[in-house]
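User: I've been going back and forth on whether these two constructs are worth ordering. Before I decide, could you fold them both?

Assistant: Sure. I'll take them in the order you sent them. The first construct and its structure tokens:
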Amino acid sequence: MNEASRRTVAKIEEVLGQSQAFQKIDKSFFVVRQGSAYIYLLVNDWNGRSLLRFVAQLARGVDMNPDLAIKLLRINARLRFGAFGFVRDLSCVTFQHTLLGGETLDADEILATLRDVALLADEYDDQIVAEAGGQTMQQLLEESALSSLRGDLERHGWGEA
């Protein structure tokens, strides 16, 4: 990790570190829960500089079709920053934005970007699922938690009559 990326990580931890919604996954990967959205913050070295990427997975298992693709491209053209994307392997619609990290990165930039990415994710996740199927990240996590809980109950014999 270069010096610019170390500064970026330090700034993220300074700005978000006390939040209950903030979790550090590893040295350059963080997750913040905002409403029903989970925003990933990824710090990457870039030509002696640092990039801070904000990525929200809006929905997985989406049946991407031409109408939805064109709709998302039209929305991209109107947005002041960031863009919708599609990860084919996961059938996942994302929204992401990248900031230049390092010494010029400030708290207001981090907070404004986090807020805007979360608002867009929260606004569009349900619409995408309604239009093209799949599940929102909130639904996936709730389903995973319930499945884990059910497994715990079965392992301990609590589900038996």
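The second construct, handled the same way:
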Amino acid sequence: MPSPETALAALVSTSGQAAAVDTAMIAKLTQVAGDFAVNMALALVILVATVIAARWAARATRNGLGRMRGFRHDPTVLSFAVQVVRVLVFLIGFIAVLQRLGVQTTSIIAVLGAASLAVGLALQGTLSNVAAGVMLLILRPYRVGDLVNIGGNVGKVQRLDLFFTQIADANNVKIMAPNGKVFGDFILNLSGQRTRRMELKIGVGYGENLNDAKEALVRAAAGHEKVLADPEPWAGVTNLLDSSVEMTLAAWCKSEDYWQTRADVFQAAKEALDAAGIEIPFPHQVAVPYGDEDDRIIAPNDGVRLRRRANPSSAGFESGRDGDQNEA
């Protein structure tokens, strides 16, 4: 058996080794924690710098393109380019943050490359919106500030980005239209031309003088200050309806004055026809009672006075004679 002195020496040696291991482990953990703290601090600094750089790059892009003659008065291209630059700066900063935290970005890129087909199929709608946004930017069927009709929604274009076209209608309702649907549908740019023609359809009676009606309508349109003299206003018969002759009044004005000028010319046309004594027919409702053949009457313009009759075969009413009063 070992002596007590030998056992005590072995115990002291083992305790020393354990203490040395604990000290080394604590030192290693302290070093790892310190390195992680330093990397985390640097990552936060890179993130803050990325945000600042993105704002600066966006501002510089806007100012730089704003000095160019081709983009100076085109906010559509400016907003689109600024957004692309901002996204690129954020992407570079995000990769730098991952690298500082010890993430192998090359492996992430390899995985994304291997899964590109699946990602493309899953995001085909989003990618089509991006491609459509680029095509809209290149072809420019409309610009920011234009009045457009997209998918039956009429509004003013406020923004064009990578995914959506934002418009605001007459009630100031924000409408987000995906670029893919916008590019694949009809686009009506209502303010794409400097001038615009209005067509007002007004019915007049068959017994009226159509030449006088035409002169009254043309005179009403020409008297408005916003109606252009060239091309001059025109009026003519365009259809024969059941109870009226349809006349169309055509006049030109500037695109920005269209809606108010159209309303004013409509009112002026109505007042001009009234002043000329020309009737504008409108539907009349006539009450015709049914019953026996000999009880049928022609309803006068001021209505028919009916009184109850005892014969049930006449639907409970009979035409009254002059001087008759309605019976209870």
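Notes on the second construct follow. Residues 301-310, 312-328 have pLDDT under 50 and may be disordered. The two ends are 136 Å apart (CA to CA).
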